[in-house]
Write a structure and sequence with these properties.
This protein has about 575 residues and is α/β, with parallel strands linked by helices. The chain folds into 3 domains: about 1-55 and about 495-550, Urease, subunit C, domain 1, CATH 2.30.40; about 60-300 and about 415-480, Metal-dependent hydrolases (TIM Barrel, Alpha-Beta Barrel); about 305-410, no CATH class. The protein is built from 18 helices and 25 strands. Strand 1 and strand 2 form a beta hairpin. It starts with a strand and ends in a 22-residue tail after the last strand.
Length: about 575
């Protein structure tokens, strides 16, 4: 028998959670044909000699809504073994839209997801009005990985209610019905689900809360009920849980009314175990027969500080402002001169920066995402016998001004990732919240999947860690199941041939770097990795040793996918 591709001699971690085993993987017609001892030959054969062979990763919480309309490479995610991304999260997106509301949706995405308005204004073609039109536009494009979209509450609300929707006024019964109908139509057209935001952290670039912040229960349940009539689709909610009992009951009622699965975003937002009440909510929903999951982060949620980033701690200082027009390396050299450096330090101290020096760390190479408290700027400076401001400035000027400092906060209140470990271990959670494609000047968390494998499966020494088969299953099969893409996430006959060949011993993250490759010359942080030997999408190799092959087999995934495994497949 002849196959399109045979990957031979790998250590297969198949995504089911089963122990690793030595096996060959044969691919034909974009599907897995055999896993085991493959006697047939392939038109192409790759000998991997014990390297990990795993399913392609599925990242269900990204914001490539805009990038997917102008870019064929959905990086940084596609540099981290991700072969399917799901956008349209947090209730913000670009469809449906009336011509007069383009600016409103740009301001919302700019504020919520740190995507520069000028980039969106130049990059978006606005060749759509309805959600179906938007999906049609995406369907005409080709990508390095698969892409899926969701219906976003904010644009639906503005489309139906106009300025009243943006101003967060209560919806009438007729408006709720119209929103539900549009959401259901979008899901029938191929969107995977419906998402909404109920957090004060989400604001427009003008500082206004997101239109969906105070949507009443009748609105949320009414929309969910209409989606339920479509017989498919998932629900996703990010919420502050300001009144936890009321909010929890609203979520449960959305599920009861629709019969659809729902996921919440979950991080440790304050010191202590307050996040456990959300884990209890997952258990309560499960006991009621409701499919509720929480999307959790693979590491702390934090921000990157640097001269090139959206948060440049030196920018208020007059000494910095005097050289701000120079090229980056010249800025760093000028500011490093003793007379300028001392003045800069004095100005930083005088501004009483809100950045807590005991919570800021040098990111390093390779990046350290669970730094010990004794490695903070404050602790290091004390050991060195210098002020924290002196060390702070010196670090920011490092690497010719390209240095990045890391300020973790969510999931990191006790100086460790123990809270994240507890959330990752819960049976009703899945990895998510990478925000790939968003926050382009402050974070680069599209690398979450690589952190999940390296930190939790190999490198962590300060607490709980996990077996590699568990982690691979969570980032491939479990995430695929969470959004109804049951044709992928497993290396078994009949499933979509998305896979990674990984040199696990040498898998490592590169530090993030700033590039200018967005429309209008916009800049963004990107982050690569070493150790991904081969990434395959639909049977076609897209990346080899971390470099693109030029192949673009990725497509818009339009609607859920049934489990396509052969009889006996898991």
């Amino acid at each position: 028998m002849s196959f399109d591709l045979v990957v031979r001699g790998g250590t297969v971690v198949d995504g089911s959670g089963a122990p690793a085993r030595t096996a060959d993987v044969a691919i034909s017609g974009g599907r897995i044909a055999e896993v085991g001892t493959v006697d047939g030959t392939g038109r192409r054969e790759i000998r991997v000699d014990g390297a990990i062979v795993a399913p392609g990763f599925v990242d269900i919480h990204t914001h490539y809504d805009g990038q997917a309309t102008w870019d064929e490479r959905l990086q940084p995610s596609s540099s981290h073994g991700v072969t399917t991304v799901v956008a349209g999260n947090c209730g913000v997106g670009f469809a449906p839209v009336r011509e007069g509301d383009h600016e409103m949706l740009v301001e919302l995405m700019e504020g919520v997801e740190d995507l520069p308005g000028v980039v969106l204004e130049e990059g978006l073609s606005w060749e759509w009005e309805s959600i179906g039109d938007y999906l049609d536009a995406l369907n005409r494009r080709r990508y390095d990985i698969d892409f899926a979209a969701q219906v976003c509450h904010a644009p639906v609300r503005v489309y139906v209610m106009g300025q009243r929707g943006a101003d967060r006024e209560a919806a009438t019964v007729e408006e709720i019905t119209a929103m539900g109908r549009i959401a259901a139509e979008g899901i029938r057209a191929g969107a995977l689900g419906f998402t909404t935001s109920r957090t004060l952290n989400h604001r427009t670039s003008r500082g206004q809360p997101t239109p969906t912040l105070t949507a009443e229960r009748d609105e949320l349940v009414g929309i969910a009920r209409e989606i339920g009539k479509a017989g498919r689709g998932v629900l996703q909610v990010v919420s502050d849980f300001r009144d936890e009992a009321v909010e929890s009951e609203t979520l449960l009622e959305m599920m009861r009314a629709s019969g659809r699965p729902l996921s919440i975003s979950l991080v440790q937002t304050a010191p202590g175990p307050g996040y456990r009440s959300k884990l209890d909510l997952l258990d309560a929903a499960q006991a009621e027969g409701l499919a509720m999951r929480a999307q959790v982060a693979a590491r702390a949620v934090g921000v990157l500080l640097g001269l090139q980033g959206s948060i440049n701690p030196l920018s208020p200082a007059p000494t910095f402002q005097a050289v701000a027009g120079l090229p980056l390396a010249e800025q760093a050299r000028a500011l490093s001169r003793p007379e300028h450096r001392e003045q800069l330090v004095a100005e930083v101290q005088a501004t009483k920066q809100v950045f807590p020096m005991d919570r800021i760390f040098e990111l390093g190479d390779p990046p350290e995402y669970e730094p010990a408290p004794e490695d903070s700027v404050a602790a290091r400076a004390e050991r060195m016998g210098v002020s924290a401001a002196h060390l702070y400035v010196d670090l920011l000027l490092g690497y010719e001004g390209r240095a990045l400092l890391y300020m973790p906060f969510l999931n990191y209140f006790d100086g460790s990732l123990d809270a994240a470990a507890e959330m990752l271990a819960h049976p009703r959670t899945v990895p998510g919240l990478s925000d790939g494609g968003a926050h382009v000047g402050t974070i680069c968390d599209a690398s979450f999947p690589t952190s999940l494998l390296t930190h939790w499966g190999r490198d962590r020494t300060r607490g709980e860690s996990f077996e590699l088969p568990f982690l691979v299953a969570r980032q491939s099969r479990a995430t695929a199941e969470a959004v109804g893409l049951l044709d992928r996430g497993l290396l078994a006959p009949g499933y979509k041939a998305d896979l990674n060949v990984i040199d696990f011993d040498n898998l490592a993250l590169h530090p993030p770097v700033m590039v200018r490759d967005l429309p209008a010359g916009g800049k963004r942080l990107v982050q690569g990795a070493r150790g991904y030997l081969h990434t395959v999408v639909a049977g076609v190799e897209t990346y080899a040793d971390g470099e693109p092959t030029g192949a673009l087999p990725g497509r818009l995934v339009r609607g859920p996918r049934a489990d396509s495994g052969r009889a006996g497949a898991p």
